[in-house]
# Entry
Amino acid sequence: MNKRTNLHDENLKARVKRLLSGEHHVEDIAKLYAGKRFNSYGRASFRELADFAAHPDIRNRGPVTDRVRDMRTTFKPLYDKALKNEGADFKDVVARIESNFRMASDEQISAITNGRKRQQIKRLVESAAEKLRRDDIGSISEDEQKIAVAFGDRLIWNPALRAQEVFEDFKYVMVKNGLVPSVEADALDGIRPLVVLYAISVMHGTAFDLGDGMTGELQAGFNNPESRLEVTTLLTLKGYPKKVSMKLGLFWTDLNARNHVEPALLEHPGPWPFAIEVRASRISPIGKVTPLEEPQDTTAHITIK
# Structure
């Protein structure tokens, strides 16, 4: 067992060494994610991307699908109020308190609550939501009420993953597993774009199923004002007078498309309805490049960036 484990790690160390030498093979990044999928030391983005690679057909759990659920929950009362005669359901507004809190960054929570910490606010959110669901409004404390209003009466969203988080988690896992000495960890900075491009490539084209009839697929592209590479999904919401589609940003990067995609893709910002791969440290199409179909005029198209 030890020999197999040691040989496995030596194989991975050889790939790290090759990457650091300037030979940038995306297959090495893939092997590192696969090789330490179950040794990610709590770094959620590393495990999530390794799971994407292991299950490229469909995802039904993990940070990305959780974020899709939360985004839908947060925006549902807004759509209901705008598009339904009966307006938003109270239980959906309560659910939005929780989804907003889950999506909020530590910095956003601090700004909303005048410097308070996530764990403290988490207890108040859970307590307030439970009492509201029981229609036990009289027992809600003044503090709980303020927090419930603060998170229920606003729209908060963040992508499930960001480029810097993905790379920092990658570095951490490499160091914790002994694949690179901690004093040399910064040497990995030169492969940051390749790690981010790999992440885009494994997310692109994967379907998801939320388990309640809501399905979709992830698509990469750079159709945003900054022309940054990203991964998005398009949700189709039912139960409204007209078809409503909602574009959600799930992986946001700081990589400019001009520097990181093959020239053939520069006229096609996406989201891309065709296969892609990482070739020579750039996103490249596999096969024919097909243009994106525009939403029909009968569709209310909402972009959340």
User: Anything to note?
Assistant: Residues 63-83 form the longest helix (21 residues). The longest strand covers residues 243-256. Confidence is low (pLDDT under 50) at residues 296-302. The CA atoms of residues 5 and 11 lie 10 Å apart.
